[in-house]
Design a protein that fits this description.
The protein has 492 residues and is an alpha/beta fold. It contains 13 helices and 19 strands. It has a 7-stranded parallel β-sheet with strand order 3-2-1-4-5-6-11, sandwiched between helices. Strands 14-19-18-17-16-15 form a 6-stranded antiparallel β-sheet, with helices on one face. Strands 7-10 form a two-stranded parallel ribbon. The longest helix is centred in the C-terminal third of the chain and has 36 residues. The radius of gyration is 23 Å and the shape is globular.
């Protein structure tokens, strides 16, 4: 093991980066993270152990400043979720990062790409491969790991496999279900990432990493079914040359949004198997050996059942979401068209019992009003490329700043008092939902606000179109939250 290094991690709010940072700290490295929105790290357990720098990877000055004094850069971001044009954006950022690293004296760049065959590739895989090439051709030596499907609680690949398998006992599928893939457990990906700092100085190459277990996608889904206690799925490979149609179907029946499902499904047209195992000459396998697919699924399901999912694929907002700035305080609404639906209810229930219900909202607990209406709205949102209601939540009882809750994201959390959610569904404007509880004599006062900033005439028409549904949904929500809080109080 090398001496402790000064390490910069980009993508620390994402699925991989959020799990890598605490492991680097555990190994004694001094860690700095570069993030667009530092508030998303407010509740992570390692918040006080790292240096947090605010910046954007499209801004060379802020990137260069963040890299100054660093030995190793972990470049763990991608722009796939930003939709059309993501490949150009990824390559521009890669050039900027490579140049800034050279100017700042960084000694090594570590990047995670994907396993792929030679020849024509999907736009997603072509972009990942091109980013790796740009980094390898830069002045700073780069370690480019190439991994297949990552299996772990909260990963996009695992969520896609899980929802497809659980939803469809019989699956007429495109012919790509016969493609060969080499999955890898998230714990093994992290092992190789952490050990990248131990590679010889000047190492500048790709390394294929995987479980050494080659399966078809059909076998992957039936392997999940076995671990989940489900009957074996009947998967029929059909000659359907329509990856876009399959991508739309995946977006509808899984939590993965259309902006991600389309490039992901296009990538499934190719085998993804290691072509070399050279990493074995430099990095020993994990102490307990490489994790097989069945064991990786078992571990992922166990973490989800115990509510121990550290990060999820949805943790990092797509860059387009940055336009949704935090809700301004009420006095600043002057000059802004604002629609508000406010409700409040007094109760003899103590505030802490009301808060328990508030913090548990969404996911399997639902939204305490007209579940069919929420479900229909979720399906409609999915059909136009929105988040829908299937993303659920990372932990069934506890929320943290930046967490996803179905089609919302936690923007502000004052534990015990206030929860503000920012909408990530497709609407012509910006929307928030605030849930607050305060002491009121011997009981509590629950207050609820839906806030909407319309965009143009379409935004105003949208509000008035759904206003009749609000008169049914929001009063019912307030009533049922208090009702459930009473049950919580009785059970305490």
């Amino acid at each position: 093991m090398t001496e402790a290094q000064r390490v910069l991690v980009t993508g620390a709010t994402g699925y991989i980066g959020g799990r890598l940072v605490p492991l680097l700290l555990e190994d004694g490295h001094k860690v700095r993270v570069l993030v667009r929105s530092p508030e998303k790290l407010h509740d992570v357990p390692w918040h006080d152990d790292v240096e947090i720098v605010q910046g954007d990877l499209t801004d060379k000055d802020s990137v260069g400043e963040a890299m100054r004094g660093m030995d190793t850069l972990y470049f763990l971001v991608h722009s796939m979720a930003s939709g059309k044009g993501f490949a150009d954006q990824e390559q521009q950022i890669a050039h900027l990062v490579a140049d800034a690293a050279a100017e700042s004296g960084v000694q090594r760049i570590v990047y995670l790409g994907g396993l792929h065959p030679e020849g024509e590739l999907s736009p997603h895989m072509r972009s990942r491969t091109e980013v790796g090439r740009i980094l390898l051709e830069g002045k700073v030596p780069a370690v480019v790991y190439q991994a297949g499907v990552v299996i772990g609680s909260g990963s996009a690949s695992f969520e896609m496999i899980r929802h497809l398998t659980e939803t469809l006992p019989v699956m007429p599928a495109p012919s790509w279900v016969r493609r060969k893939i080499e999955p890898i457990a998230i714990r093994d990906v992290l092992h190789y990432l952490v050990r990248a700092v131990d590679l010889p100085a000047g190492t500048n190459r790709t390394f294929d990493i995987g479980s050494r277990e080659v399966l078809t996608y059909a076998e992957i889904m039936n392997g999940y079914a076995e671990e989940a206690g489900l009957p074996q799925r009947r998967v029929y490979a059909l000659p359907l040359p329509a990856p876009r149609l399959a991508g739309l179907w995946v977006a509808l029946v899984t939590p993965i949004p259309r902006s991600m499902s389309l490039p992901l499904v296009e990538s499934l047209q190719h085998d993804a198997v290691s072509k070399e195992h050279d990493i074995d000459q430099y990095v020993p396998e994990p102490d307990s050996g490489r994790t097989g697919y069945q064991e990786a699924v078992k571990r992922a399901l166990g973490k989800e059942m115990r509510g121990e999912v550290e990060t999820t694929w949805a943790g990092a907002s797509p860059s387009a979401d940055d336009a949704s700035s935090p809700l301004p305080s009420d006095p600043n609404w002057a000059g802004q068209t604002v629609y508000v639906d406010s409700r409040q209810r007094r109760s003899s229930v103590a505030p802490e019992h009301v808060w328990k219900v508030i913090e548990g909202i969404g996911g399997k607990n639902g939204w305490y009003s007209l579940p069919m209406a929420w479900a229909i709205r979720g399906v409609l949102d999915k059909t136009v490329g929105g988040a829908g209601l299937t993303r659920g939540r990372r932990n069934p009882t506890t929320l943290f700043t930046g967490d996803v809750v179905d089609w919302w994201r936690v923007e502000l959390l004052e534990r015990g008092s206030l929860l503000r959610l920012r909408a990530e569904m497709r609407v012509p404007g910006k929307a928030w939902l605030e849930l607050r509880v305060d002491p009121d004599g011997d009981g509590s006062l629950y207050r609820q606000r839906a806030i909407y900033f319309p965009k143009g005439l379409g935004g105003k028409l949208y509000w008035w179109l759904i206003a009749p549904f609000h008169t049914l949904i929001f009063p019912s929500m307030a009533k049922n939250i208090i009702k459930n809080a009473s049950k919580v109080a009785q059970e305490s």
